[in-house]
């Protein structure tokens, strides 16, 4: 399996972990307190450059408690962004 698809599967898994707070009643806030910094760290490790820094801030904010944002699949959206916009090689112009 190509590494980009392994990263997609890992992203889906990590988004699932982030949504556990919806499944376990009463434990959601504790899970989010632990998961918010961990998810930000993991995004920094999975992606590169300025994009990773921005994605980690978004992930932390989403998991730390911006109301209504916990459902956003940050890891998977980061993977999609990486595949669509960061994987392209720049076209050199020949003048």
Per DSSP E runs of 2 or more residues, the count of β-strands stands at 0
How would the global form be characterised? globular
Query: Average pLDDT, to the nearest integer?
Result: 84
Q: What string gives the helices and strands in order?
A: HHHHH
> Fraction of residues in helices?
over 70%
- Residue ranges: pLDDT <50 for 5 or more in a row? none
Q: What is the straight-line distance between the termini?
A: 40 Å
> How many strands, which pairing sense, and closed or not: the largest β-sheet?
none
Number of helices: 5
Structural class by helix and strand composition:
mainly alpha
Q: Tell me the β content.
A: under 5%
Roughly how many Å is the radius of gyration? 15 Å
Molecular structure report:
The protein is mainly α and 95 residues long. The chain has a domain of 57 residues. The protein contains 5 helices and no strands. Helix 1 runs antiparallel to helix 3, helix 1 runs antiparallel to helix 5 and helix 3 packs antiparallel against helix 4. The radius of gyration is 15 Å and the shape is globular. The model has no long low-confidence stretch (mean pLDDT 84).
């Amino acid at each position: 399996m190509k590494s980009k698809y392994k990263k997609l599967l890992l992203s889906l898994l990590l988004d699932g972990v982030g949504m556990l707070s919806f499944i376990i009643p009463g434990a959601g806030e504790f899970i989010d307190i632990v998961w918010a910094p961990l998810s930000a760290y993991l995004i920094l490790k999975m992606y590169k450059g300025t994009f990773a820094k921005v994605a980690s801030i978004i992930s932390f904010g989403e998991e730390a408690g911006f109301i209504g944002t916990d459902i956003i699949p940050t890891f998977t959206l980061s993977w999609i962004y990486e595949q669509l916009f960061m994987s392209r090689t720049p076209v050199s112009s020949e003048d």
